[in-house]
Structures
1.
Amino acid sequence: MVQHKSALLGHQKDARFSFEVERYRKDFPILSQRVYGKPLVYLDNAATTQKPRQVIEAIDAYYRTENANIHRGVFYLSERATKHYEEVREKVRDFIHAASSKEIIFVRGATEGINVVSQSYGRTFLKPGDEIIISHMEHHSNIVPWQILCNQIGARLRVAPINDEGELVVGDYAKLFNSKTKFAALSHVSNALGTVNPVKQLIQMAHEAHVPVLLDGAQAAPHLAIDVQDLDCDFYVFSAHKMYGPTGVGVLYGKQAWLEKMPPYHGGGDMISSVTFEKTTYNVLPYKFEAGTPDIAGVIGLGAAVDYLHAIGMNAIQAYEQHLLMFATQTVSKIKGLKIIGTAQAKACVLSFVLDGLHPHDIGTVLDREGVAIRAGHHCAMPIMERFKVPATARASFAFYNTTEEVLVLERALHRALEILK
């Protein structure tokens, strides 16, 4: 342990930035609690992140002071709620550098965003025999909707392979494109491996073949600065709860030219201009895709989360998290019998691993008693487990409120698991 502390001090000395992690930790009430008598070390951020008091208070304030439906009311509460709701759309537009707030669609999460595109775009523009490209590292949410679409219309799913490091094989991806290829849906960052894909290059290659691209940004939005215009993606999805906002809210970005041509995914109130029994005229963007009363409080919470991240700065967050991931990788790699699954050169804050002779669920149970929360399982990415010939992995995933001291607690807990389970 002395050796690790020495290494930690050296690592901090080499860091070319200053990040006030202890200051930010104070904003997260849940991090101060104890689990089985020990301080909580929360390392399941790829599943969901904890919420700062600024987000909690914003949601509470909405329900306390302005709870009313939006867009339809002519009274004060409704007008104020509508104003705050629509301000979030502009905040999100700025957060991902979209060209227009008309391109920002509020959905229940990244999963619903993908389903909207697969059903609205896919059933409108794809036909029998067409091909859709995904990769071997996709989350189930970016596999199943496309399988459903293929079964509905007679299209075919093509899968770009990954190598032993968990990196997409770009050359093989390029070979999948042909005259039948009509769409590509790819992860920006893998939730099970942490791999950061070279998405700008992948999009450019697709566009050269006149193929639109959707990016699943659920794992990228909390960790990377996103610029959808620079990436030139056609669609981008992410979830609020993975970026310090509430559950049940997310964003679908789509280029306005595509969204104008796509039919609504849901029908109901607010997505219409006029309704008769003979015909319905749909509302303008972005409301055409937002049927019914939305999660108003959730969207306001998302806005508070965007404000919070903006105040810290995504570049500062990325720099600190890379420092943390590097230290964690170096630390756990010294544990005998531990193998990291996913060793791509470009990674975000995910550390998946197996320990010789131990099932990840057993590891997770022992770590829980030590106060350390990790995820154990297939992480909604069964094809990845099959690719690496493991039934599951243990996954520690980091956020900017985690510390190098918590990494050392993780290391001690893993040694404890080895003592107990072996």
2.
Amino acid sequence: MNAVNKQKTVFDINKIRADFPVLTRKVHGLPLVYLDNAATSHKPIQVIETLDRYYREYNSNIHRGVHTLSEEATAAYENARQKIRRFINASTDKEIILTSGTTESINLVAQSFGRSTLKAGDEIILSQLEHHSNIVPWQILCEQTGAVIKVVPINDAGELELEQYERLLGPRTRLVAINHISNALGTINPVRKIIELAHSYQAKVLIDGAQAVAHCVVDVQALDCDFYCFSGHKLFGPTGTGVLYGKRALLEAMPPWKGGGDMIRTVTFEKTTYNELPYKFEAGTPHIAGVIGLGAAIDYVNTIGIQAISDYETGLLEYATAAASTVKGMKIIGTARHKASILSFVMDGIHPHDLGTILDHHGVAIRTGHHCAMPVMDRYAIPATARASLAMYNTREEVDKFIMAVNAASQVFK
């Protein structure tokens, strides 16, 4: 485990909030209450300044130049890879593939690992909780290979039915792709158990960690997952950045997905030989500034401590859940015993989109809709939910303002 993540720190919410410039702005004349962190998180000044410094001082392409700027950019980029590796406790930098986000990471696994190993009749297990980005790539793969998808259902609380999962596993199971934390409901899935059961059938496991890395400790070696992926922009880093962790032996055996510069060793018109890991999967000029900024975001999170963040957010979610229970007509969707940072709900007589618009006029930013998780909405027979999602910089006072805004909206539609 990364020793930095184990540090005991004093959680100073006022100091943390002071690091995020956007939190000082007003919306419709009122202080911003930003509760849309599951969609994207805000960026601390330390990340913003890192991006500014890159573009001002050493903007250059990487891995190609011998001049000073290129060498500085390359060093900063690869240093960010090392920070990512330590953050999730991968065993080597070669297991850290830098992508544009979780979506690209999943598509990479589908089109490289999946397309080269799956055949007609093979089975992929997903869950009813998945984001569309962890459904559609596998459907495309099934169309290409003849593989089939099996789905783990959820109960009324929004928890996976593990007995059903065990029944779905079998000799034809080749891959299990499950999210660590549900973006729609906040359910924390028992991923270690899911992985153990899948491995007992020699199936590989991909964990979609997009909603997890900013809210809990992730140790890929302890989990023993085969693939783990996440996006930088939900971890207080820049958009357009992401990570695919894969076990080295699997990545070595997988063919490249994209062709182009930097993923080659030699090129002739007769044959191309490919670069070593991790560069075999990193064709073209990447989001250099973004990756360096992601490294700065990880530095920032480590100064606070991911466990301290998790503990604080757990208390904040408990406070918000209790406050929501006092609101007449509010029904929480997703009441799993183990949840993280998300309050998804519906209001009697108010469409979520109308609710979101009214809350915006109170300075409160929430997300409304199906949250790229239509099967979840179908499970509850609703078209959409309103979703308040918390981050380490949110406060109980902001939760109170959110509840007041919901009550005000209820009065409008009374």
3.
Amino acid sequence: MNRLIITLIFAASAILLNGQSILGTWKTIDDEDNVEKSEVLLYEEGGVLYGKVIKLLEGATGTHCSNCEGDKKDAPITGMVIMYDMMKDGTTYDGGKILDPASGKEYSCKVELEGVDKLKVRGYIGYSWLGRTQYWYRVQ
């Protein structure tokens, strides 16, 4: 009986998470200093996921991307698309890039829901195990 209950709980959790969308506004938490930095809007265009900074929070270390290159050099971080070309792969999004405005570096990226209001964001170079993970939290 206990196994049946546990199995039903896991099945219900999986169904709820699979039906949950990652679209919406998320609060970013820096994985190095555990400080809230920004709010990012995740949205889809043509089946591709993008993330745009819509608000800098008190913990943000800068307002412009001074270390970025190209057209993002010295551009305001608010309004900047920092996640792009993410394609849905089952319950995750992968294959795109994410920009770290503090360093100006771009990384391969993978995102997936860890709970209804918790998003796992993994930035990496080459292989997923060569990277960093941040957890973002849904803004209500």
